[in-house]
């Protein structure tokens, strides 16, 4: 789009002067992916590998009786069938949960293969080992399990009531209660004095993350020296290495984890899964590589699901609609067990239920419960889409109560620009923000006033195709995370990231990053950063990642952290290399270090234009080490581990325009504008791409996707024919624009953008749907707003009985 | 059963189980792993290849059904002079992120452009309905296919 609000991609304060950062650059990842050269996990050739297939409980809750494997073992090519009791000593510990959010959190043992009871439909009860994937699947059909079905707990209130307790050793279905109420008296006083008191309850349905590549695992043992290579389609090879070594009980230095090309993650590959530990254990037991590739239908139950909570939000406001307090109460579904970071997911939203509004008093409480459903965990946005949804939906209700427009209620309450850095009522410090321009521009992009007039015309003309407009202004906290903040939240690890920058003798560059991509284009962006700093061609920079033998230190990719944490580590390591090169260059030119300038890849002496030495000369000199300053180590290499001092807080405004056919209940997205601010942009092409995909994932929650379960805990949308991941036909071209408000949390002034689209879009669409239906008195539609639900809402409201 | 398929211009024969899917034949027997598998209900289109010049989901065909056919996979698309125009358009329009759906999406797009003249954005969206992408939101895919169709 040429007509942009802000033609800049970098603020004047940005440290980048090389002319590379801030401009669209095509991705170096593409040629291999476009030609089939890239190797995803199922592409690996592993001679002699055995395949496993999982026998999964068809019941949501059942005692496991006898298991008869004889028919499976009779199949030519089936090598073994292992049950939970067989494998009880194959690992040192149950599957890990790294986030005990409270000291008394209930965390039932989650065995990779269930021992005596299955707690969700999909829980693994036996493993078939065979010579091929087809034979392993045949073997599953030959395993007969005697189940004693138990009553399933699928409803959140039913779970919280403890009518049926799922885990006997926990004694309750409540995993934890958690609260963040900095000043309870202030909250009570604000609600007591409120002129307007809005109370809304919203449900976030269960979502299936559905990256296009299902998961896969291959464990390759070296039986005699004890080494193991674990290949996994994971977002977190580094975290997985630590956790898998501990869980299996093997020395960490003997384990190497490799994430090959990974076909999307969206949070669901941020975990330690049963199949990873099972493949490792069986590779040890059988002494050969053992592998598994998830089928799509299997993935629907065997990979974590997202969202799954009910939230009540209350707003207190004065007569003008100025917010005086926000109180949020959550009931969250953990599923049958606690996966790696599941307990913390609702709490990642705990700080954001007041959105980007200046609110003096704040209260948040969350109760999380177990159900007999697939475990939940992080899904794109993880806690922040839920928070943004609650506040942005409720702000529309407040606007109605006050009698002002949804744009006006937002403008009235935005945190004023002069208040940054902003001390939030939840205890965070928002780094930077300037919210109003994003709302103004988004309104302009959708022709807000024109659309409002059209909406009124349609209504007065008695049209049955209603128009709806929905605004969502958001701020999110990402760049996870300052390690000390994580400590305060009881998280089991730090939030730093590592990078090494190495200038080779020929002045080509290797960058080693602990960030692990699944499609975000790290190789391109990291190359651009380093090339801009060093004055070299980005094609001369190679980015190495996703293999713990090459990149031993890392915290991986989630929470929109790669650029602001991992990228910053890369930037700092490059600065460190330049500092060393500067000392060598000064020595070569017999000049003082402080007299040297570095620009365009050349060191020169200020005031002596004829005295200069290119980086290439320094690099070769550092390699030969024939004449280095006394005491200096040869070679140009620097390693940095960066622990951020604060989160980053991207923001923006999205507006959705929908048409709702009152006769069929069909909702169609007809226009969409997104105006986002992620600070300085390294590669605006990639920023926009991240937003496109994120927005569609959020729209999909509003309109199409739901992991539908029946009362017995059976998933009724277990494949891509029933679970409606949108195709191109349902989507539209989105109008994009941006502003640039640099972060103060890192030296590059960057924020995250991986989750922003998903965070923003769901409430924009649902506000639009409700806006279209407001003449019927409808104030909410449970997501997804399917034609059936919309029609029923209209009928329940007494309208459109035709 | 013995099957013989001309794949990317070369006759390839193998002895396969009758139940072997064409997708698995290409990947496991011929080592052409560019064709990805993303589902088990013929919904996602990641495994799309050209069979006798028309796009087909290679998980919906048995290898034996392709006996005697000409199959083009993603590995057969780029020539000695570089990427196929559709691959180049995907590159230039940033129409891929993780790249898992990409081989199937590109093959479906090649077939779509070949079958229809004067495609517009709506036609591209309709024509690619059988190919799912979770990363791009499709906006740049539509742009790329339109660019390559010109």
Layout: helices, strands, pairs:
The complex is a heterodimer of chains A (802) and B (150).
Chain A: H1 30-35, E1 50-56, E2 62-68, H2 70-73, E3 78-83, H3 84-87, E4 117-118, E5 124-130, H4 133-141, E6 144-149, H5 156-161, E7 174-180, H6 184-193, E8 196-207, E9 216-221, E10 228-232, H7 237-248, E11 255-258, H8 274-286, E12 290-293, H9 296-302, E13 306-317, E14 323-335, E15 361-370, H10 384-402, H11 406-413, E16 422-423, E17 429-430, H12 436-445, H13 448-460, E18 465-475, H14 483-488, E19 497-503, E20 509-513, H15 522-534, E21 541-544, H16 562-589, E22 596-599, E23 602-605, E24 608-614, H17 615-624, E25 636-642, E26 651-661, E27 667-677, H18 684-703, E28 735-738, H19 756-773, H20 787-796
Parallel strand pairs in A: 1-12, 10-11, 14-15, 20-21, 27-28
Antiparallel strand pairs in A: 1-5, 2-4, 2-6, 3-5, 7-15, 8-13, 9-10, 9-12, 13-14, 16-17, 18-26, 19-20, 19-25, 22-23, 23-24, 26-27
Helix pairs in contact in A: 10-11, 10-19, 15-16, 16-17, 18-19
Chain B: E1 2-7, E2 10-15, H1 22-29, E3 48-51, E4 54-57, E5 70-72, H2 85-92, H3 102-115, H4 121-127, H5 139-149
Parallel strand pairs in B: 1-5
Antiparallel strand pairs in B: 1-2, 3-4, 3-5
Helix pairs in contact in B: 2-5
Written description of the protein model:
The complex is a heterodimer of chains A (802) and B (150). Chain A is α+β, with helices and mostly antiparallel strands and 802 residues long. Chain A is 28% helix and 23% strand. In chain A, helix 7 links the parallel strand 10 and strand 11. The model of chain A has no long low-confidence stretch (mean pLDDT 97). The longest helix of chain B has 14 residues, at 102-115. With 150 residues, chain B is of the alpha+beta class. Chain B has a five-stranded mixed beta sheet with strand order 2-1-5-3-4, covered by helices on one side. The interface between A and B is large, with 57 and 57 residues.
């Amino acid at each position: 789009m040429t007509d942009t609000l802000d033609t800049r991609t970098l603020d004047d304060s940005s440290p980048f002067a090389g002319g590379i950062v801030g401009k669209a650059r095509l991705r170096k990842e593409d040629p291999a992916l476009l030609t089939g050269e890239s190797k995803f996990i199922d592409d690996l050739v592993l001679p002699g590998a055995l395949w496993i297939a999982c026998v999964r409980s068809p019941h949501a809750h059942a005692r496991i009786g006898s298991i008869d494997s004889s028919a499976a073992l009779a199949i030519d090519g089936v090598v073994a069938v292992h049950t939970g009791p067989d494998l009880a000593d194959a690992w040192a510990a149950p599957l890990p949960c790294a986030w005990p959010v409270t000291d008394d959190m209930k965390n039932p043992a989650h065995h990779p293969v269930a021992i005596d009871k299955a707690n969700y439909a999909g829980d693994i009860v036996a493993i078939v080992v065979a010579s091929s994937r087809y034979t392993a699947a045949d073997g599953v059909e030959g395993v007969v399990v005697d189940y004693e079905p138990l009553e399933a707990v699928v409803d959140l209130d039913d779970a919280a009531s403890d009518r049926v307790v799922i885990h006997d050793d926990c004694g309750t279905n409540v995993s934890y209660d958690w609260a963040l109420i900095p000043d309870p008296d202030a909250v009570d006083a604000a609600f007591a004095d409120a002129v307007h008191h809005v109370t809304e309850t919203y449900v976030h349905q269960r979502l299936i993350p559905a990256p296009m590549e299902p998961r896969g695992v291959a464990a390759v043992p070296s039986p005699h020296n004890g080494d193991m290579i674990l290949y996994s389609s994971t977002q977190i090879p580094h975290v997985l290495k630590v956790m898998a070594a501990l869980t299996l009980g093997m020395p960490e230095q003997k384990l190497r984890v490799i994430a090959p090309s990974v076909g999307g993650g969206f949070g669901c590959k941020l975990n330690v899964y049963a199949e990873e530990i099972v493949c490792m254990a069986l590779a040890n037991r059988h002494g050969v590589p053992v592998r598994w590739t998830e089928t799509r239908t299997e993935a629907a139950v065997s990979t974590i699901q997202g969202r799954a909570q009910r939230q009540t939000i209350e707003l207190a406001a004065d007569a003008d609609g100025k917010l005086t307090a926000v109180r949020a109460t959550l009931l969250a579904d953990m599923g049958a067990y606690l996966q790696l970071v599941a307990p913390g997911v609702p709490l990642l939203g705990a700080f954001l239920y007041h959105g980007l509004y200046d609110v003096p008093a704040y209260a948040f409480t969350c109760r999380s419960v177990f159900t007999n459903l697939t475990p939940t965990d992080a899904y794109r946005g993880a806690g922040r889409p839920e928070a943004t949804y609650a506040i942005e939906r409720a702000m529309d209700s407040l606007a109605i109560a006050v009698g002002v427009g949804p744009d006006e209620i937002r403008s009235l309450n935005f945190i004023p620009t002069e208040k940054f850095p902003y001390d939030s009522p939840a205890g965070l410090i928002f780094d930077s923000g300037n919210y109003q321009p994003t709302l103004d521009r988004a309104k302009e992009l959708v022709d807000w006033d024109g659309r409002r007039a059209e909406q009124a015309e349609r209504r007065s003309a008695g049209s049955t195709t209603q128009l709806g407009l929905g605004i969502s202004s958001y701020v999110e906290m990402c760049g996870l995370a300052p390690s000390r903040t994580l400590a305060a939240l009881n998280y089991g690890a730090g939030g730093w990231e590592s990078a090494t920058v190495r200038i080779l003798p020929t002045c080509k560059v290797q960058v080693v990053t602990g960030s692990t991509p699944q499609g975000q284009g790290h190789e391109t962006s990291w190359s651009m950063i380093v090339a801009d700093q060093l004055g070299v061609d980005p094609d001369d920079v190679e980015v190495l990642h996703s293999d713990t033998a090459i990149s031993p230190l890392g915290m991986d990719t989630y929470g929109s952290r790669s650029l602001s944490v991992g990228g910053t580590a890369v930037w700092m390591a490059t600065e460190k290399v330049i500092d060393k090169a500067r000392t060598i260059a000064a020595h070569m030119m017999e000049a003082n270090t402080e007299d040297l300038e570095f620009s365009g890849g050349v060191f020169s002496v200020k005031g002596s234009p004829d005295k200069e030495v290119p980086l290439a000369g320094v690099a070769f000199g550092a390699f030969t080490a024939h004449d280095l300053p006394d005491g200096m180590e040869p070679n140009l290499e620097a390693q940095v581990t960066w622990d951020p001092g604060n989160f980053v807080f991207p923001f923006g405004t999205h507006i959705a325009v929908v048409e709702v056919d009152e006769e069929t209940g069909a909702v169609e997205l007809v226009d969409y504008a997104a105006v986002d601010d992620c600070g300085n942009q390294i590669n605006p092409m990639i920023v926009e791409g991240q937003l496109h995909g994120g927005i569609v994932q959020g729209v999909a929650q509003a309109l199409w996707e739901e992991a539908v379960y029946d009362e017995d805990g059976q998933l009724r949308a277990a494949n891509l024919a029933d679970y409606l991941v949108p195709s191109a036909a349902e989507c539209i071209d989105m109008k994009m624009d941006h502003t640039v408000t640099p972060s103060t949390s890192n030296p590059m002034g960057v924020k995250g953008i991986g989750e922003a689209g998903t965070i923003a879009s769901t409430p924009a669409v649902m506000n639009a749907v409700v806006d279209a239906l407001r003449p019927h008195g409808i104030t909410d539609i449970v997501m997804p707003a399917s034609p059936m639900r919309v029609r029923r809402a209209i009928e329940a409201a007494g309208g459109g009985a035709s | 059963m013995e099957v013989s398929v001309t794949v990317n211009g070369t006759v390839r024969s193998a002895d396969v189980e009758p139940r072997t899917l064409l997708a698995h034949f290409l990947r496991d027997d011929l080592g052409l792993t560019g064709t990805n598998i993303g589902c088990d209900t013929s919904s996602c289109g990641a495994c799309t290849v050209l069979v006798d010049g028309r796009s087909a989901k290679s998980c919906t065909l048995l290898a034996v059904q392709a006996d005697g056919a000409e199959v083009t996979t993603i590995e057969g698309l780029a020539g000695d002079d570089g990427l196929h125009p559709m691959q180049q358009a995907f590159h230039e329009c940033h129409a891929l992120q993780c790249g898992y759906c990409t081989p199937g999406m590109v093959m479906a797009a090649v077939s779509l452009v070949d079958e229809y003249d004067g495609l517009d954005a709506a036609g591209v969206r309709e024509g690619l309905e059988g190919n799912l992408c979770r990363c791009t939101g499709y906006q740049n895919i539509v742009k790329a296919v339109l660019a390559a169709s010109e």
